[in-house]
Amino acid sequence: MDPSFDSEKVAEIHRHLHSHLPPEPALRVKALESLLVEKGLVDPAALDAWIEAYTEEIGPKRGAAVVARAWVDSDFRARLLADASAAVAEMGFAGQASGHLKAVENTDTVHNLVVCTLCSCYPFAILGMAPPWYKANEYRARAVRDPRGVLAEFGVTLLPETRIDVWDSTAELRYMVLPQRPAGTDGMDETALAALVTRNAMIGTDDLRGIA
Amino acid sequence: MDGVHDLGGKEGFGPIDRAHEDDPYHTEADARAYALCVSMRAERAYPVDWFRHTRENMDPVDYLTRPYFDQWLQTAIAMAIDAGDLSMVEVATGKPDSLARTPAPMSPADVQAMLTTPASFEREVSEAPAFAPGARVRTASHGHPGHTRLPAYARGAAGEIVAHRGAHLMPDDGARGIDRPEHLYTVAFARGDLFPEAAGSPDRIHLDLWESYLAAI
pLDDT tens across B163-186, in order? Predict the structure, then answer.
């Protein structure tokens, strides 16, 4: 059958699942994995492939390499800001949720912050798995209403006149922040610079300007 | 849908817990739940907004309290039951009724392809966009039953078109099984226009919104 696209029907299925599945999350996952594998709905080798990809290969190191290149190569920086999907593909990082990627640049007067208030949309291909706090109710509720309070909790304090641009990624566009290059890093090469770039800086909850 | 998933601007939430922020997966069960959910997606082509809407229809207490990928997995299971690929009896007993599967489940090669091939949601439309950058617009004042990507905190609000993003598949329709593209815009709102305590703040909140969510001012 095709999906029913019926809200009431899936809400009822959820209620039944709630009562039929073990209450402890780890046991629930285990019970479902064994059923799905036995029924042939999933291949255990595919499960391992997904988990390994985001453990070994795909993670915030990719985003850090993109940022470091933008810091040292002004042509690349211009391409990244004009079409981030193409710029990250150039570096071999095209993948999940990178098809409509936008890079937003921090400046002396603007600080960018990314959230998804409706679910937890995130640019997996360049930042890997989202940190738990990004998916948590607290961050999703507060980032749009109290961005300065949220940033203060992450140790980021901005001047009152600095504008915060919040990007609530409610469509299929995904956002990464291009942080400002730390002062005193003029002599550093791309690899050394990439090591300074944190995942949180690319979401907007870190400020690298003073670190070097 | 006026569900608890629509969290933006809701008050009463406390400090942000940064535990495990550098682990790709929170727990082993989280990793397994994630992999099961994404592996089941090959079983049947469906719009991503049907997945989102099915998750939104989880019991509200479960939505707010259960681990993230545990919710994804229950959503994938609910979708499989809805589409007849799995039965509630099988879930309840843990024993499959039948083993005959077509097509074959997602393979590691399929996973590699998905990990390296970005999806595009942009489509051609014949209509010209109604708004140009710089135009002032007001968002719809009400939501509607079913899926939508206009958050409650930005309803009935005045903002400015920052960019036209082409025409993208419309999520409200996608969650009903209808593929229909519509012009998509990035709209900037003054934070002070959305939240009274932020009056006078220089901050802006940006949302990517479809044309039918917007009216000219």
Answer: 999 999 999 999 999 999 999 999
